[in-house]
Amino acid sequence: MSTPIRVIQYGLGPIGSAVARHITERSSLKLVGGVDIDPAKTGRDMDEVVGLEQPLGFKVAKTLAEALANAEADVVLHTTSSCFDLFESQITEILNAGLDVVSTAEELSFPWLAHPKEAARIDEAAKKAGKTALGTGVNPGFLMDSLPLNLTAICQRVDRIDVTRSQNASVRRGPFQAKIGSGMTVEQFENKVDTGRMGHVGLPESMGMVFHTLGRKLARYEDSIEPVVADSLIQTDFFTVQPGQVRGLKQVARGFTDAGEFMTLTFIAALEEPLDQDTVKISGKPDLEVILKGTNGDIATVAMAVNAIKRVKEASPGLVTMPDLPIVTFG
């Protein structure tokens, strides 16, 4: 039996805690540390913080250095922030410590178009350390990029790709419901959009990943966000939304080659949204349509991040993206 891969969980919010719990369920992995800057969590028993009944035998560290002073590790699973200006120093710190890293940071999933300088710095740090960094999750990382890319393997020609993710956010966690604007007025929502603080992070990365992998030039990118407004009272465990208030959002990204629109990504997340499914359409030879039902965003993100650990450990040093790796599977 092979030696389990030793994992430190960096970031203990709802997703990070779920990742930590899942790691303990996998015989090929061993959770050896946890890091979080929240003073309400640091110094407490890790099992208590993440919601495990069995004792883990270590406490939540405030820094990575503190966690490594108490245990040796092979890889860090990083779940803190979405944006480069917040997570770049953390990823570099992990690599400089001589550890591989799998991160759920959306902007790391395919950063070469939107953040080429930052991506180059991380790639350089990874290669210098002889380690690998990957950004992944369910979206970006799978539904709007890896999945349609894999489906093109059975096509002789690809003319256009359309992906729609429609979610009933009423069954999601509170922070997600807040993130999509639940309970806001339309004016508040639009003000958030204007300041760049509203909308799903990751559509440019998914678009860039698909265009780059298929050898298409992304000549133009467009992105629009609009509120989805309630026409009746909605009550969840976290929000009460009155008629006329925002119950979610619809975001559409369009990618163009010089010849015209090639890819459209539609992201809908709203309370009591009647259609809860993911649809991938590929126009070409042949025309394909794949519909997924039951894709829980939180469960899928945790699964993808944990399942990717093995592939990252086997990968060449550097900053890699999902198309650089063999297909990630359970196990």
> So, CATH architecture of the largest domain?
3-Layer(aba) Sandwich
Helix proportion range: 25-40%
What can be said about the biggest beta sheet?
6 strands, parallel
The overall strand count is 14
Q: pLDDT average, as an integer?
A: 97
Number of helices: 10
Instruction: Report the C-alpha radius of gyration, rounded.
Output: 20 Å
Topology, pairings included?
Blueprint: E1 5-10, H1 14-23, E2 29-35, H2 46-50, H3 64-70, E3 75-78, H4 84-96, E4 100-103, H5 116-129, E5 132-135, H6 146-151, E6 157-168, H7 174-179, H8 186-194, H9 203-213, E7 220-229, E8 234-235, E9 240-241, E10 246-257, E11 260-270, E12 277-285, E13 288-292, H10 297-314, E14 318-320
What does this structure look like?
This protein is of the alpha/beta class. It has two domains: 5-137 and 299-324, NAD(P)-binding Rossmann-like Domain (Rossmann fold, 3-Layer(aba) Sandwich); 146-293, Dihydrodipicolinate Reductase, domain 2 (2-Layer Sandwich), CATH 3.30.360. The chain is built from ten helices and 14 strands. Strands 2-1-3-4-5-14 form a six-stranded parallel beta sheet, with helices on both faces. Strands 7-10-11-6-12-13 form a six-stranded mixed beta sheet. A hairpin with a 4-residue loop joins strand 8 and strand 9 (240-241). The longest helix has 18 residues, at 297-314.
Keywords:
Rossmann fold; 27% strand; single chain; globular; alpha/beta; Dihydrodipicolinate Reductase, domain 2; 331 residues; 10 helices; 2 domains; six-stranded parallel beta sheet; six-stranded mixed beta sheet
